[in-house]
What we know:
The structure holds 2 protein chains of 2 kinds. In chain A, 23% of the residues lie in helices and 23% in strands. Chain A has helices at residues 5-15, 20-23, 103-116, 148-153, 216-224, 284-293, 296-303, 332-341, 370-383, 397-404, 420-426, 444-454, 459-470; strands spanning 28-32, 60-62, 68-70, 73-78, 84-89, 125-132, 135-140, 180-186, 190-195, 208-212, 230-233, 245-259, 308-310, 345-346, 352-354, 357-358, 360-366, 389-395, 409-414, 485-498, 501-502, 525-526. In chain A, the strands form 5 sheets. In chain A, strands 1, 8, 9, 10, 11, 12, 13, 17, 18, 19 and 20 form an 11-stranded mixed beta sheet that branches. Chain A has a 4-stranded antiparallel beta sheet with strand order 4-5-7-6, covered by helices on one side. Chain A has a 3-stranded antiparallel beta sheet with strand order 14-15-16, with no helix packed on it. In chain A, α6 (284-293) packs antiparallel against α8. The longest helix of chain A has 14 residues, at 103-116. The radius of gyration of chain A is 25 Å and the shape is globular. Chain A starts with a helix and ends with a strand. The longest helix of chain B is centred in the first third of the chain and has 36 residues, at 89-124. The radius of gyration of chain B is 24 Å and the shape is globular. In chain B, 74% of the residues lie in helices and 1% in strands. The interface between A and B is large, with 69 and 60 residues.
Amino acid sequence: MTKATRPILLGIALSCLAAISTAQAKDQLILAIGGEPEQGFDPLLGWGQYGNPLFQSTLLSRGQDFAPQPELATKWSLSEDRLTWTLTLRGDARFADGTPVTADDVAYTFNTAAKAGGRADLSALAEATAIDEQTVTLRLHAPRITFIDQLLTLGIVPHAERENGYSEQYGRHPLGSGPYQLVEWQEGEQLIVERNPYFYGPTPDFERLVFLFTGEDATLSAAHAGQVDIAAIPPALAANVPTSMQRVIMESVDNRGILFPTQPDNGEHAASGAPIGNDVTADPAIRQAINLAVDRDTLVEVALHGFGRPAFGPADGLPWSSDEERIDAPNLAQAKGLLDAAGWELHDDGLRYKEGLPARFRLTYPSSDTTRQLLAEVSAEMVRPLGIEMQPTGRHWDDIQRHALHQDAILFGFGSHSPQEVYYLFHSQHAGNGYYNSGFYINSAVDAHLDAAQAAPSSEQANRHWQAAQWDGTTGYGLRGDASWAWLVNLEHVYFADTCLDVGELGVAPHGHGWPITANLLEWRWVCD
Amino acid sequence: MPSIAMRLGRLALVLLCVALVSFGLMMLSPIDPVDAYLGPQVAQVSPEQRALIAERWGFDAPPALQFGHWLRQLASGDLGWSHVYNQPVSEVIGQRFQRSIVLLAGAWLVSALLGFALGVMAGTKEGSPLDKMISTYAYLTVSTPAFWLAMLAVLLFSVTLGWAPTCCAGPAGVLDQDVTLATRLHHLVLPVTTLALLGIANITLHTRTRMLALMRSDIAIHAFAQGAGRFDVAWRHGLRHASLPAVTLAFASLGELFGGSILIEQVFAYPGLGQATVAAGLRSDIPLLLGIALFTALFVSIGNLVADTLYGVIDPRLTTGGS
């Protein structure tokens, strides 16, 4: 560089900072969607469980309909006893250093991840074995169809014993066979990645991606200053869209709902010391009446600023949840009828009583979460005309765990890309196990359906059993059955995106805002010149 | 003057106390380390995996054992492993402090020098328009929360006017090695200014009071009687006299500056030690939090030591014992 050009370049750098993103946007996309993995990009510790692993590729991928699609593995099968997965790898996959991905790497990845103690949960795996160069088997401890989640999310890393193999530093120097490779990670600030020339799939539209890891305020400021191409925005701030950007909405199963304790109060305590049971919510009539009375559309408007949709189950719209689980409009008359039939009598004070017991209980929410506070207070108002008094109570999570978890109705948020969550929430085996099934919901018919799902030969066939657990015609955990929850709303995740950016068909996001939008990153296009 | 050994002993004792108190606070904190580790995935893993996580990162050990283990590691020069960053604590602190030191040093220098200069100017002519302006300004800023000022600054200078970047220590999409010095400074201007404002007012007000006292003292009256002007007196007698509180405040405020930088770094998304401290606290990363606490305590102690030494240089009467 000559001396004369230096000041000019300097001037450009200083004055046109705002213009950088737009001037080079065809090659470089700037994303401010949060999701920085402080631990680094190590799949064995959980990188990639949430959205696109970017640097690594997975054995299978999720299609639009959530059915598994080939990725690194071209063929896969589950043995008759449901204990062994056998997968055949494609021959042309290479790590970003040009070396081929072999069955050894896959087996190493799974075996090491099982012991790593990170966010990737491979506790179901007994052992992974490389049969030959291209075939690998994964043996499980017990039948568990949801183990397929790990085939969908665990990025494959190179074996530790090869050149550039896995080591303690891998998180900061990831090497994988995914669409992009790491150029530089300025921790706490940004991540710069470029295309991996050896990627076996279609070439991504953008040569370079820049992920800014800014907080909500800084992200919003940057969006308004025109410095980013896509930004995750909290719904409360989404009304004012910057010029040359548009709102992009991603549907989600990031839901909020009321969990009811389903056991009566027998004076028992959980291992944590928290008392178990609530005599009011133990009556299914109360739970069903509340489900009928809440006006979910209004809740979406009031608590979510309109960015959401009504929720009727833990996984609305996903294949393991039935579309028939829904209440079209609140029906107070039917709800009152249910309560009358169950012996809850309306007294002069406007409250219902059954054998001297008032229909009154606490509705606890984590006090730091204003959305849940709104949901709690508004839904309490909605059921008040029934003669049921839900008392909204804000507590710290710790307080909830020690006192409220098993005796109060609680405003929870769930929502996952895996039906395993349904298993945790409703199987009696997980009753009182931390946040899972904290209402001690116990129904042997539901247990049987959930176990049948885990033992199914494929995830498609498992879906029928998952749905049956919700309602099998006579019972179920869902609305038509025991109404163990009153699901209220599904959030929508809001982004501001440049009008030139086409993000294609977005999937359904799980609980957690931000990175999940990258799931279909390879379909994103720049539509302006 | 106490011997070096005595001072070091005292310092070690202070550090041990800091570590013990921080550790105790972490133990009392209601945060479940496994929940904090899992973050949004808190309800996605099996009970077996939770147990594995607790075992791998040492969350399940009794507090006394955890602290003992940490002390033993420290004795062998190892600050431990941060589970939030999956990196040795010393590396986390080293990397982040490199960024923070620029911000801190810049803000510290600006606030000390500017604060002192303003204080001397205001104190020299009590009641003058200049004094009133400076005092008003100082009273206003001393009662303004720094993070609020920072948010206003971002809104005005970055979003509305577009003069300064909205965040970070460098521009988006530019490799670290390609960032020019000018760009770095450009990114530093707003955070440094807002952080400096935190310290300026304090130093100004104290210096001003000292100057006022001097101007009313016998020394000043004597000098006036000999025909010296106010600025003459301020220059010859005032500077040294008024610099004692300024030095004390400047070095004592190092701790405050650290605290302030945590908030400022959050607002400007500036990746310094402040962000790491917040992450360590909220996510129960005990080795990292203890490491940062020790490091900060050491930093502040050294600041005080320097101030102590400077006193003797500025005012020889303050040298105790010895001669």
